[in-house]
Amino acid sequence: MPVTHTHNDSAVFPLLADPAGYVACPWDLAQDADRRAYWLGVFRRQWPSLLQHAMSEAGDRGVDATKACEHADRLFQAYLDTVANDPGAFGRLDVLSVCWHRENALRAAGIADPYRLLKHTENERALALLPALLNELDAASESDRDRLVIEGVFAGNIFDMGAEHTQKMFEEGSVDFGSVRAKLRPRPWRHDALDAWAARLRSAPYQAAVLFVDNAGPDVVLGMIPLARYLLEQGTTVVLSANTEPSLNDVTHDELTVLIERVAGHDPATRKALQSRKLRLIESGNWAPLMDLTRISPRLAAVCGELPIDLIVLEGMGRSMESNPDCGLTCDCLRLAMVKDLGVAESFGAELFDLVMRYEQV
Questions:
Q1: CATH number where 323 lies
Q2: Domain boundary residue, one of 83, 108, 133
Q3: Does 65 map to a domain?
């Protein structure tokens, strides 16, 4: 029998202001034919590349995944055909529910982590660049550092195999963290809260923060780990929360644990934070590139009850724009993303590769 993911062992994020009124993904594709056609088209076009990566990943383990990929293809294409004709066939239809059905099709066919190889390659490349980046950040003035840390998150966030434009760039091998950072849109960004953010950090450090991280490779290693380290230096306790299970090229909790141990091997600040438990890694309970905050891991919910969390960081287009664009929280919220999809850009009145830094203070 195929294994279908359920959320029986999930909890509601304790910092949601209105859990009863919360909707993770506000775009109801059943009610919007144009948007439905756009997003189903995105999923269809991205799917063959995903299956190719699944074949390569299996080949690396000495397994022929041809039959598994054919099985997954039948399941997911049948699902897409069904919701194209009958949008309400499986209940609410939004981008997140399509992601869940894609993951279920892969798991039912025995495909666990199609991008494992690519994530590993990008993690290694990013780790090699990290010591020099940390030295650069440590040597920068306070005001430059605020900007450089956020620009690092933007530049790293380009590693996204769920967005057509960046997927193509990675497959052509034309993406490099340094060159992306050098070519970022100048300030003011599409949403630019850098001055307000810097002023808040100067006035008083945050007590504890949960950082929901996005992709593997340069995204987490050169973007979010330096941001976490920056907050740690100010005395903030930092929880890094990654997906429990694989989805696209998102970093998983297990992968992040290994990455942080390797960073701690050469960075005393990270090592000290881990040893003192000022830095904690807790799985989010999530298994999609978007996130439903009423379905998080009980362990994360428990830690949010124990720690005086006063900052949430939602990183990446999926977690902060396609889902949770306006989720009310009982603490400050920082949303960071590079816009890499035309449909998302259009929905937010933005352009491709615009930079978003939205900062809401309670």
A1: 3.40.50.10880
A2: 108
A3: yes
What is the reported pTM? 0.97
Exposure of 179 by Cβ count < 10 A (0-12 exposed, 13-18 middle, 19+ buried)? exposed
Would you call 55 exposed, middle or buried from its count of C-beta atoms within 10 A (0-12, 13-18, 19+)? middle
pLDDT tens, position by position, 97-131: 999 999 999 999 999 999 999 999 999 999 999 99
Domain boundary among 108, 140, 169: 108
User: Considering only CA atoms, which of 239, 304, 314, 308 is closest in space to residue 278?
Assistant: 239
- Residue 316 contacts by C-beta under 8 Å, 6 or more apart in sequence? 157, 160, 213, 214, 215, 219, 289, 336, 337
Strand partners, 334: 313, 359
Tell whether 73 and 103 lie within a shared domain.
Answer: yes
* pLDDT tens-digit map of 216-251: 999 999 999 999 999 999 999 999 999 999 999 999
Class of residue 172 by CB neighbours under 10 A (exposed 0-12, middle 13-18, buried 19+) = exposed
Q: Give the CA distances from residue 25 to residues 22, 214, 323, in Å, rounded to whole numbers and listed in that order.
A: 9, 17, 4
Number of domains into which the chain is organized: 2
Is the CB of residue 309 less than 8 Å from the CB of residue 15? yes
| Spatial distance between the Cα atoms of 78 and 188, rounded to a whole number of angstroms | 45
Task: Assess contact for 123 and 216: CB atoms under 8 A.
Answer: yes
Instruction: Report, as ranges of residue numbers, the positions in the chain whose pLDDT lies below 70.
Output: 1-8, 174
Identify the helix (H) or strand (E) that includes residue 360. strand 355-360
Q: Quote the tokens at residue 278.
A: 């000022």
